[in-house]
Amino acid sequence: MEILNVRYDNLTLDIAVERALELARGQDKGSIFFLSIDCLNKAQSDKEYLESLKHASLVLPDGIGLKLATILFGGRMRDNCNGTDLSPVLMEKAAAEGLKLFFLGGCEGIAEKAAENISKKIPAIKITGTSSGYFNNDDHVIDKINGSGAEMLFVALGVPLQEKWIVKNRDRLNPKLCLGVGALLDYLSGRIKRAPKFMRTIHLEWLWRIFIDPRRMFKRYIVDGAGFFIYLLFYRFRKTITQR
Fold first, then answer.
1. Could you read off the pLDDT of 142-190 as tens digits, one per residue?
2. What is the DSSP-derived secondary structure letter of residue 38?
3. Domain at 2-192, CATH from 2.40.128, 1.10.3470, 2.30.29, 3.40.50
4. I need a surface site. Which of 9, 17, 45, 209 has the fewest CB within 10 A?
5. Closest CA to 6 of 181, 219, 160, 209
6. Phi, psi of 172, rounded to the nearest 5 degrees
7. What is the pTM of this model?
8. Rg from Cα positions in the chain
9. Which are the contacts of 142, defined by CB distance < 8 A and separation ≥ 6?
C-alpha cells in the first residue's frame, strides 16, 4: 500500500512475525519500521526520515489513523501490526528458536527493567544486553550491541530518531534484524501503563494516551493528527475532481 509516496507492507500480524523471523535467521541484514498516521505526517516534511523508511526491509501498519487513511486511498489495511503488539509475539517465537535479543532505548534503567519483566513472562527468552537511549558515543553502544552476540536489536529511541539511527549505523550493526519500536520498552518496563484491552479492541488507545500524557499526546493526536487527516481528505477530493 502506498500513501503520499510512503509505502507500507499490508500484512497480517502472523505473517509479519514470520517475515521478521526469516530476516533474523537470514544471511543478509534487515530492518523493520512501523508506520502510523503520525509517522506518515512526519515523512511529508522530513526527507531524511522518508528515505530511512525506504531502506527498511518491512514497513508495518500501525493504528486506526493509518487504517482510515488506507480506506481513504482506496485500500484495506489487513491488520494493525503495531510494534507494541507484534514485539512480544516475536520475542516468544525468537525464544523458542534460541535467538538472542538486545534492548536499546528509554531512560536509565528502563531497558533493564523491560528485560526483567519480559523474562518473567517468557522464561526461555535470551536477552544478552541492554542500554539506555541516552548516549553521546555511537561507537561505544555499537560495540556493546555487537559484543552481545544478539541476532535481534530492538531500538526504542522514538520516531524518527530511531529509524535514522538504524539506517545510519546499519552496516556497523551485527544483529541480523533491527526494529524501531518507539515506546515499547516504556510499556514493557511498566513506566507507561498501556490502555485497557477493551479500549484497544475498539481502537481508542489514542484516547488513553491523551489521558495519561495530555501535554504531549493532545498535540500529536488532536492538533497534528486531525489536521493532517483533514489535509488527506482535501487531497483525495482534489485528486477525484481532477481525474474526472
1. 999 999 999 999 999 999 999 999 999 999 999 999 999 999 999 999 9
2. H
3. 3.40.50
4. 45
5. 160
6. -90, -15
7. 0.94
8. 18
9. 169, 172, 173
